[in-house]
Amino acid sequence: LETEEAHDRAAATYPVVPFGAFGTIIARDAILSAVDAGALLIDARAPERFEGTSEPMDPRAGHIPGARNLPFAGNVISDAAGISRFLSPETLRERFVRAGVTSESPVILSCGSGVTACHNALAMHLAGFEAPAIYVGSWSDWSSQPHLPIETGPSVGPRG
Questions:
Q1: Helix (H) or strand (E) holding 84
Q2: Spans of the chain below 50 pLDDT
């Protein structure tokens, strides 16, 4: 709370710098057919949410069938002061390769609600991979549809 006259702190103008094409959005009804056709589905949530042992906010616990778990938190390292920074591009690339990402593989990213999937998308960009597709609704959308299948348990493939 301030007692002085308010100042417009948003008065500065910030230039918009184009970042280039940063991927596409994929719809819920296209996920399973894309995975069946060879797309790699990567879920950025913490392992306990992915595996279905803990679900603090969504209607069902688990993950989309065929998904691999690559928690976004593994993209960064914290220094002694607690400041987090992305890993080096080389280390990020190794992490995604261990998860099954190749230059030829189409990748779909998901998470709880689409936010941390974007963290993985940025990490993929820094690692030199092509822009992935993002399932914006992610687990919150998927788990709210009782007719859609779910899986529980560990990742179907290697973890990064």
A1: strand 84-86
A2: 19
* pLDDT of the residue at 71: 97
Residues identified as active-site: 111
Identify the DSSP state of 73.
G
Q: Which two tokens stand for residue 106?
A: 């189409």
Please write the tens of the pLDDT for every residue from 71-90. Answer: 999 999 999 999 999 999 99
| The two three-digit tokens of residue 98, written as one number | 């261990």
Q: What is the dihedral of CA 35, 148, 28, 41, to 10 degrees?
A: -30
Buried/exposed 123-155: b ≥16 CB within 10 Å, e otherwise: bbbbbebeebbbbbbbbbbbbeeeebebbeeeb
Whole-number Å distance between alpha carbons of 43 and 107: 11
Q: What is the rounded distance in angstroms from the CA atom of residue 125 to the CA atom of residue 118?
A: 10
pLDDT for position 24: 86
pTM of the model: 0.83
Burial class (CB in 10 A: 0-12, 13-18, 19+), 1: exposed
Interstrand relation of 84-86 and 76-78 (parallel, antiparallel or unpaired)? antiparallel
Kindly list the distances between the CA atom of residue 136 and the CA atoms of 24, 98, 151, in Å, as whole numbers in the listed order: 10, 24, 19
